[in-house]
Amino acid sequence: MKRSHLLWLLLLSLSVRVPLLVTQHDAYLTGGITTSLGLVARNLLEGRGLVETTGPPEILQLDNMQVREGKLRDIREFPDPPDQPTKPLIQRMPGYPVLLALIWRLTGSYTYLPVQVLQVLLSALLPLLLYDTARRLFDRSTGLAAGVLGALNMPEARLSVVPLYDWWLILLVAFIAWLLVRTAKRGYPVRDFLVMGLAVAAGVYLKPTVLVLPLFVLAALLPRLPGRQVLLRGALAFGIPILVLVPWAVRNDRIFHRPILTSTFFWPTIWEGFGEVPNDFGAHLDDRTTYLQAVARRKLLVYGTPEYDDHFRPKVIRVVASHPGFVASLWARRLVRGLLFPGNPWGIPWAEDPEASFTRFQATRGGGMAAYLMARPGTALVKLAQRVWEPFLFCMALLTLVVDRSRWKEFLPLVALPIFLLAVIVPLHLEGRYLLPGTQIWILFAAAPLAAWLFPDKDLSPTGTGFPGAHA
To answer: CA 78 to CA 212: how far, in whole Å?
Structure first.
């Protein structure tokens, strides 16, 4: 492909993301977690170590003000008294606070904009990585289609503006997909799994569930490689992250007297997730309500600690044992919602304003969908695109997997990546952004039929059954 094509692809990607950075950099999206980790980063730079701030009241009041205003406030706006109460970080991994601290040390200001600029620039380069992955997997025209889909992927572009670890997992999955396609062409050399192990080690310090990602990939390689070769590669891809976590586990053992390998809040997350639907055992999808219920039974329980985890473990096990139908139904609902109705925002305020919703339109003016389309054509079309985009990519990816099923052994390691995401997210708690890393894989496969339709004059694959360039 001409370099000019790649340049246009980059410019298209930037044209989507830069306006989002300008208009959405202070929007309150998962702002509570962002503020909590930002305060950890400040504590680290101020010499307090990896500790969370739990007061004074002025900080909590500012945090509540963010929620009311819908605006994210920079950490520099929060007071920083030297005697503020803190507790050791354990509820979340330290990777993102460390990243923030490094950037703030360089910039000298406790503001989120520098890390947001970094994420947006890397997000703008992501379509080029998708292009190269699809080019290697199929051909150049499919690579171009994948790059365009990646550039126009509004949910990912919107998430890149959020100063949180979630976007980095998208980059990690896209990189591992590229690595898997490249290593397949080279005969799966061991050194590529060393690189994978290092990438996963970095990812697990952002989010603990990343730790099991190599296990899914390695299982998917069994149809292509002998068991001994898979074990050798697994020792690197899975063993390196375990080794890198040892210092963190030692620190946790020193503080909490438990060698916790990653973080806490596993059992409370499952318990709160039960509250997604009405139930008769008292689970609520609300942090504050859940905490108040817990301290009503155990007065000295501290939120987010290992003891807080312990409190919910028997409760979760009891529900799974006594309500298996409820749990199975909940997981099935999450699976369908995650794949077909994720509801990820695009960062278009006038279209995502609750006052502009179809429900609000019906309540205030009456009329059906046709009347709504006539009254708010732009909003209606954006909302339609939001609903269709991710299911469209998923269905197009399924089409490729069915049509090119003769390549299933080659595709399986890539498909293992979204399967990994579903396996670790569906049983815990689902939010649409959690599955966005898997969308990168759907884009790779969805690009194949799109390229076939856009370039119908190209020869079919040598099997005569696949998409153009399937064996290039």
So the answer is: 37
Coil, strand, or helix at residue 72?
A: coil
Predicted pLDDT of residue 455: 76
Q: In whole angstroms, give the CA distance from residue 256 to residue 305.
A: 9
Please tell me the distance from the alpha carbon of residue 63 to that of residue 35, in angstroms, as a whole number: 8
As a whole number of angstroms, the distance between CA 145 and CA 178 comes to 16
Question: Residues 441, 126, 156, 378: is their CA dihedral positive or negative?
Answer: negative
- Both tokens assigned to 290: 């859940």
What residues contact 145, with CB distance under 8 A and at least 6 apart? 134, 447, 448, 450, 451, 454
Residue 111 host element (H or E): none
As a whole number of angstroms, the distance between CA 78 and CA 135 comes to: 48
Helix (H, G, I), strand (E, B) or coil at 56: coil
CB 291 within 8 A of CB 307: no
CA 158 to chain centre: 12
CA–CA separation, 402 vs 399, rounded Å? 5
DSSP symbol at 87: E
CA dihedral 464, 465, 471, 472 (to 10 degrees): 70
> Alpha-carbon distance 462 to 178, whole Å?
24
Q: Is the pTM of this model over 0.85?
A: yes
Query: Closest Cα partner for 438 from 193, 169, 233?
Result: 169
Distance CA 67, CA 51 (A): 23
- For residues 29 and 345, the answer to whether their CB atoms sit within 8 Å is yes
Q: Within the chain, what is the greatest distance between any pair of CA atoms? A: 72
Residue written as tokens 């620190």? Answer: 251
Distance between start and end Cα atoms, the chain: 14
**Residue 292: which region, alpha, beta or left (left: phi > 0; alpha: psi -120 to 50)?**
alpha
Nearest Cα to Cα of residue 55 among 82, 31, 29: 82
User: How large is the C-alpha radius of gyration of the chain?
Assistant: 23
For the chain, 472 residues long, the average pLDDT of each consecutive 10-residue run is 83 97 91 92 97 88 86 93 93 97 97 98 98 95 96 98 97 98 96 98 97 98 96 97 98 97 95 95 93 90 93 96 97 96 92 86 84 90 94 97 96 98 95 96 97 71 49 44
Closest among 11, 402, 110, 49 to 251, alpha carbons compared: 49
Cis upstream peptide for 208 (omega within 30°): no
What is the number of residues in the chain? 472
Q: Side-chain half-sphere of 6: how many Cα atoms within 13 Å?
A: 13
